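Exercise 7.
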Amino acid sequence: KQTQIKTSNGLISLNGNFSGDSNLKTSNGKIEVAGLIKDSFTAKTSNGSVDIDVNRPESEYSIYGKTSNGSVKVNGENHSTDYSSYSTSNTINAQTSNGAINLNFAR
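Solution. The predicted structure, written as tokens, is:
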């Protein structure tokens, strides 16, 4: 199963359950996602923030977050411009050039 959403100038806002290969990409806009993420999930934007709220614990994910101009926060904890953790086969990859990355997991 594969989900791809791409836009050049606009917000991507999704709420639901994502499984398989999920790829979200925008050039100039924010990405907002909430729900259950399984397998491989990628959210990339050039100019905008990435906000991902997952209803499962952080320990169930391998995570990569990177921004050039902004911060990466995981459950509110600031990790400068780069964050990675390796745990399971469920992966979240969040990237932006100009904006913050906020990753929130169930506790």
